[in-house]
């Protein structure tokens, strides 16, 4: 049997070769600072402009920016984060995209050769457990039961759980900590020969394989972690219903968050954006404090998966003291959602459609609220048309900094994660036309820039960012 140590040396050789009205309700001091004309604009910021007058609308990040969205997930209804089990498994999505025969043919021509290097443990065919997060390979060792889950309490409608280590697992954990202390990668690899489902060792090897360019082996290690995590689920643990909590402050729960976050990024790399969205929703639902910053990428996955209506619903469903629309990612993403939803419902003229702000209005408001995003997008996409050069000459779009380090960080996260979306001609047209409308508006009323700066400062004040 080939050990993980052998796999390390082999891969080393290979690598060498190769704003809504909600603003007004949630930010009461804005009305004192903003001029009267902006009040009407604030009233229209909600996707549902009528209802907003009466109620609030329904990468790991730095700690201070992660806290900004902490309250939103807590206010989301269970239904917004409920999962579709069929969409959790990327194999189902690949079959929908390419067809069953194509995927099956690819699997036959590319056997799971990496699994023999990563697995450790015994040989021999056996029946693996049926799981929803991942399809276990027939080469994987039998689940050893070294990890389990215990129920803690039911609080505020949520069932709280935590993972529990067996004495067998604790033995592997001590060996891992010893190898980690002296940076012995081969020692960590050897742990998996006897403890094939030790999470920290699998995560470490996944990071190593990714570093040397062995992305498939990295994904396989994460898949085994997913399998172990699911096999350990408590009989009453129902994550699909978004009513369970596995708080990260329990030490034994931490590997789960790392595994899910890495798995989500792997799905994105494979183009399985619908599955990535479901995993992101799972991350959000399992700890309402959002320790992994899932709120800063859920909009991206929703757009890539073409779940436009869901993203609008989600943003309206998350009630908090501030509107999700105020964040750079959601302000621009909701404008994109509206653009595609307008095309899907061109003939509808009911009250619901009429009350929705148009994509042009939402994009204009996003640019007024976060103008520094435009310059970063133009540079990152990149957008080389002369029209963009002329637009960026306007003083309103020349500043790269907002004056708030946390907001600047959020903008950088958004641009780095979502710039590829802006390579679509339709979105570039919407962005360009909206930017020209902003310039035209400012030429008629220069005070608007100060008004929006006031809103931005109030929404991302130092008190909110502490």
TrEMBL record:
It comes from the Eukaryota. It comes from Salix purpurea (Purple osier willow). Pfam families: Tcf25. Residues 14-24, 119-130 have a biased composition (Basic residues). The lineage of its organism: Eukaryota, Viridiplantae, Streptophyta, Embryophyta, Tracheophyta. This is NULP1-RELATED. Residues 1-30, 107-130 are annotated as: Disordered. Residues 1-13 have a biased composition (Polar residues). One of its GO terms (cellular component) is RQC complex.
């Amino acid at each position: 049997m080939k050990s993980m140590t052998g796999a390390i040396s082999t891969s080393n050789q290979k690598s060498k070769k190769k704003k809504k009205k909600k603003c007004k309700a949630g930010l009461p001091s804005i009305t004192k600072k903003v001029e009267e004309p902006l009040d009407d604009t604030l009233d229209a910021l909600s996707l549902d402009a009528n209802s907003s007058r009466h109620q609030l609308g329904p990468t790991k990040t730095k700690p201070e920016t992660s806290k900004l969205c902490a309250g939103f997930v807590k206010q989301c209804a269970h239904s917004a984060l409920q999962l579709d089990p069929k969409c959790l498994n990327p194999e189902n999505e690949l079959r929908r995209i390419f067809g069953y025969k194509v995927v099956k043919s690819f699997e036959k021509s590319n056997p799971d050769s990496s699994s023999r290097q990563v697995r450790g443990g015994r040989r021999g065919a056996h029946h693996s457990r049926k799981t929803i997060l991942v399809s276990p390979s027939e080469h994987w060792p039998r689940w050893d039961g070294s990890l389990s889950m215990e129920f803690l309490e039911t609080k505020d409608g949520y069932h709280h759980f935590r993972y529990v280590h067996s004495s067998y697992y604790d033995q592997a954990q001590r060996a891992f900590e010893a190898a980690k202390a002296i940076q012995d990668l081969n020692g960590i690899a050897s742990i998996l020969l006897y403890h094939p489902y030790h999470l920290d060792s699998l995560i470490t090897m996944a990071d190593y394989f990714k570093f040397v360019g062995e992305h498939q082996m990295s994904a396989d290690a994460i898949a085994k972690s997913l399998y172990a995590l699911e096999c350990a689920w408590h009989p009453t643990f129902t994550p699909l219903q978004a009513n369970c909590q596995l708080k990260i402050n329990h030490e034994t729960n931490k590997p789960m968050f790392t595994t899910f976050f890495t798995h989500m990024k792997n799905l994105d790399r494979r183009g399985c954006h619908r599955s990535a969205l479901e995993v992101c929703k799972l991350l959000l639902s399992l700890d309402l404090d959002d320790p992994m910053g899932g709120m800063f990428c859920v909009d991206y996955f929703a757009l890539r998966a073409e779940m436009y209506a869901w993203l609008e619903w989600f943003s309206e469903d998350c009630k908090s003291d501030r509107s999700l629309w105020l964040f750079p990612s959601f302000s621009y993403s909701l404008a994109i959602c509206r653009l595609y939803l307008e095309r899907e419902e061109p003939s509808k003229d009911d009250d619901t459609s009429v009350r929705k702000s148009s994509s042009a209005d939402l994009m204009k408001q996003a640019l007024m609220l976060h103008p520094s995003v435009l310059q970063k997008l133009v540079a990152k996409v990149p957008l080389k048309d002369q029209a963009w050069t002329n637009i960026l000459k306007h003083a309103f779009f020349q500043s790269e900094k907002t004056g708030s380090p946390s907001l600047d960080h959020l903008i950088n996260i958004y641009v780095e994660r979502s710039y590829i979306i802006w390579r679509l001609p339709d979105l570039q047209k919407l962005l360009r036309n909206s930017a020209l409308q902003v310039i035209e508006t400012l030429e008629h009323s220069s005070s608007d820039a100060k008004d929006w700066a006031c809103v931005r400062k109030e929404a991302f004040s130092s008190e909110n960012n502490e």
